Amino acid sequence: MSHAHPVTEQLTDLRRAAGIDRRVLAGRIGVRTQLLLQWEAGVYAPGMDSLLGWAGGLRSVVAVHPHSGLPILDVDPVGALTAVRQRRRLSQAEVAEAAGFTQPQLSLWERRRHQPGLRALADWAAAVGCDLVLVPALVGVAA
């Protein structure tokens, strides 16, 4: 059974509330309609570029929200998570172990050699005491 991530659910809800057809949004962000459907259903999780494109297509931002404090509104969740890890004086090895991936993989993401998918990004956020949240634009989303 597939389960969509809360950010995926929020993006799906935002699309529906704005009355935007899935085909229109898929065209806007440059993916097949079937793939967008699979993301919304939780069958597949988008990679980071796709996730940011999806949010941007709905005039929203995926933000890093520390468990204590305000969301970090940054167009780069990797940079925000790296900064949080460093501010909290956590090593890459500590974060990787807590998140369930390897330190070399985290290093590749932080150095922008590879990109994490949504699930890895969410696990990384949790390991540094944060959540991923969707922050809609202050203006309406046009269909």
From TrEMBL:
Molecular-function annotations in GO: DNA binding
Pfam families: HTH_3
Superkingdom field: Bacteria
Keyword DNA-binding: yes
CDD domains hit by this protein: HTH_XRE
Stretches assigned to the HTH cro/C1-type domain: 81-135
Keywords: DNA-binding
Keyword Cell wall biogenesis/degradation applies: no
Listed PROSITE patterns: HTH_CROC1
Protein name stated in the entry: Putative DNA-binding protein
Upper taxonomic lineage: Bacteria, Bacillati, Actinomycetota, Actinomycetes, Micromonosporales
